[in-house]
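step 4 of 6: structure.
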Amino acid sequence: MKTDELQLKRAEISTLLSLLNLTALPVIGFVALLFIYKKTEANTIDRYYVMLGITTNLIAAIALVLVTGLMILLGGFDSPWTWVYVISYFVFVHAMFILFATWTMVRSWTGKKLTKSFLSK
Amino acid sequence: MKYESQGIAKLYFIAAIALFVGQILFGVTMGLQYVMGDFLFPEIPFNVARMVHTNLLIVWLLFGFMGSAYFLVPEEAERELYSPMLAKVMFWVFLTAGVLTILGYLLVPYARLAEITMNDLLPTMGREFLEQPTITKIGIVIVALAFIFNIGMTILSGRKTVINVVLLTGLVGLAVFFLFSFYNPDNLVLDKYFWWFVVHLWVEGVWELIMASLLAYVLIKVTGVDREVIEKWLYIIIAMALISGLVGTGHHFFWIGTPDYWQWLGSIFSALEPIPFFMMTLFAFNVVNKRRRDHPNKAAVLWALGTAVMAFLGAGVWGFLHTLAPVNFYTHGTQITAAHGHMAFYGAYVMVVLTMISYSMPLMRGQKAANVNAQKHEIRSFWIMTISMVFITLLLTGAGIMQVYLQRYAADPLPFMVVQDRLAHFYWAREVAGITFLYGLFLYIYSFFAKGEEVADVE
């Protein structure tokens, strides 16, 4: 496989792993992303996407695990309001991360980086 | 517009939008009745407002599907509609039947309506969403048969594409499953089975086929991506929709006196139901990302993407939220169901009809796309309605969680109506979101009349 093709393949796998880490394979997906990172070189498309995956999932971990953890800690386990906020927040924000990871996966299939405008080529 | 008979869709779309306004007006009225119980009582009691709200939704979506089919099928089949006259006649029959039924709900007590329409000869009334008098149901069957005959003959004698065959399959399924509404067994549990064979197999079965085919059609048109690519996606999506959705009906059979195995079947298969919606999102993202042209109708592209995303959120994510039996044990029939219902219907079916209208209306008015100003208003209305619906969903979710906790989980559970009082702040906030949605809808309608600079064709 040529270098370019290999990089594109790695980019695609990275975005898939990022999505899997957010859905079916939490932690396992992230560890796999770290392994791929070690194989990539600076300023390449695969490094770009593997870093994007790592960053996305770290932010997701903070937003989902840490923030909801704090909500429970501060709100109290036995308060219904805690669960109103925790469940609504977790479901919505989690879905947003999944949608973002899906979009990045689709972008990686074309070998292009993300752009500022959602609809720009 | 390639074929003159496609223009018939315009009639259907205008009626659909008018009924949509009615649906939202009754929704806003009912939203207020949640917090002001005697608002418009006894003129429009809550149960009547609710019935009109849900029935108008079904009727206008059916108008939308029919209009979409009348626009799509001639172009896909590469021939004029088999009988434009039949389509026009059925439009007026359906509209008359629909309006008379709604007026019947509003002007006559429901029991009296049942008497007047001779429900006792073939009792079918009294079930949620299927409240229509038997005579109206017969009318719906006649209209559906004539519609399918018309569409079917057009497709059979023209080009058969994956899109129009999937659409036809969905429409035939819609008509066939509606027939279960005529069977009304005395046994309440058995009755629920057949009731869900209509309701569930529509919205989580054959309607998904209709939705996927309409979305695929618009995406081909606005992106220029090869039909073969889109058709492959379509095959996988409808296969997943049917695999998960058919046995997934079981998630409605929890706790109503059915055998325990439904808890396993319902949980497992309905846990798969987000997959086709996720695939639709992936499909729409992928196709738009690979598009070969920037279509001048940006509003239609936005509606198409929005459909995929909101359907995934409403039907997929919010459906999964309460579909597993151990969770549903607590959440069954609470405001969490209402949250799911609102976003799923909006995301999957309202938006796909609006996508079709957005794409086809300018063509039927002799334009490639609506003018710049009109599109600006339409896009703004898209965001207002969609964000409002997100808020409605989140607020109902919050209300539902609180309801579950106070009514079913707490050590000293509170009675239903006491809990409803405690949820008033959620309902007030939801009412504000509902009124904002209504504003978005009016803006959407205004966009059809907005004058402005014609769009440049950049294909």
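step 5 of 6: annotate
 - The two ends of chain A are 27 Å apart (CA to CA).
 - The longest helix of chain A spans residues 45-75.
step 6 of 6: archive
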